[in-house]
Amino acid sequence: MGTGAFEGIRGYNIPKGTCIFRLDDHIKRLFASVSVFGKSMPWSMEEVKQAVIDVAAANRCSSVYVRPLFYLGGETLHINAAESSPHLLIVSYDLTNHYNKPERLCVSKLHRISPQAAPLDKKITGYYINSFLALHEANLAGFEDALMLDDKDNIAEATHANIAFVHQDVISTPTQYSILPGITRATLIQLAQENNIPFVVRDIDVETARSAEAAFMMGTMKEITPLQQLDTTPYDSAHPMIIKCIRLYNESVRPSTTTHPEWVTAIHF
Ligand code: PMP
User: Fold this and answer.
1) Which burial class, exposed, middle or buried, applies to 147 when counting CB atoms under 10 A from its CB (0-12, 13-18, 19+)?
2) Could you tell me if the CB of 219 is within 6 A of ligand 1?
3) What are the backbone dihedrals phi and psi of residue 153, each rounded to the nearest 5 degrees, phi first?
4) Closest ligand 1 atom to Cα of 185
């Protein structure tokens, strides 16, 4: 019934192992998401963290996506949490041959669920029917992904990534109103600040989005993925600002190049 919470965590290829990016932040968000069920996680943060590391290490994927999924069991017909038992499943996917490339998006006819309906800063499985339907609609129309609007008709986010636009070398991204505030988005905001790149958080309407020179998605899986076009509006997918963001992000995910050692957890096989 959608009563689950999950994370998407990325590990990057390093010599003789993998390097998990912002593991602590993902685990903290998982626990925050689980808290909406009014049930406490029967494992500590340290235990869940170690389990994610163990799964990544056991499967020896040097480039990996790890998905811990907490869910309430279906022991009862009722939709309350009291009689449902907590479960945790952790799976990993080999991303060795996965590379993101520029994508074409359409503005979805389906709006993002309202922040008045549920706490959207949590990563709850049930919310993803909204993303699934918008993505399906976009794929049927020949686009790789969809951009969803909020209940005020401002841009919210793509179906499973945050979005940013570039106007005259200023990057802007929607406010936290109707989005999952992503860890990649927070990473980029911090990296931009540290590197004197103007990055603003504000409401963005469709017209403003279409007037941008460039746009990109931000997410653990999508990393920094440039947009090629929004409906029929073309963007510069090789805009220097995007190239700079990709470089800063790529440097931050590995111990040898990161300016933030606290973000990386190296696992040697
Ligand atoms: N929004 C949604 C709806 C998502 O599913 C994701 C992917 N987790 C993001 C944004 C990006 O979040 P993050 O950078 O933490 O992966």
Assistant:
1) buried
2) yes
3) 70, 20
4) 14
Q: What percentage of the chain carries pLDDT values higher than 70?
A: 100
pTM for the predicted model, two decimal places: 0.97
Alpha-carbon separation of residue 79 from 37, 41, 113, 153 (angstroms): 11, 18, 20, 32
Beta-carbon contacts of 117 under 8 Å, excluding residues fewer than 6 positions away, are none
Atom of ligand 1 nearest to the CA of 180: 1
The two beta strands, 103-107 and 86-94, are unpaired
| pLDDT tens per residue across span 87-118 | 999 999 999 999 999 999 999 999 999 999 99
Answer yes or no: is the C-beta of 7 below 6 A from any ligand 1 atom.
no
Give distance in angstroms: CA of 162 to centre of ligand 1: 6
Name residues whose C-beta falls within 8 Å of residue 155's C-beta, 6 or more positions apart in sequence. Answer: 147, 149, 163, 174, 204, 205, 206, 209
**Residue 14 beta carbon below 6 angstroms from any ligand 1 atom:** no
Q: Is the CB of 92 under 6 A from ligand 1?
A: no
Which tokens sit at 85? 């038992």
Q: From the CA of 180, how far away is ligand 1's center (Å)?
A: 6
Structure tokens of 250?
Answer: 């790529």
Q: In angstroms, rounded to a whole number, what is the distance separating the alpha carbons of residues 69 and 40?
A: 14
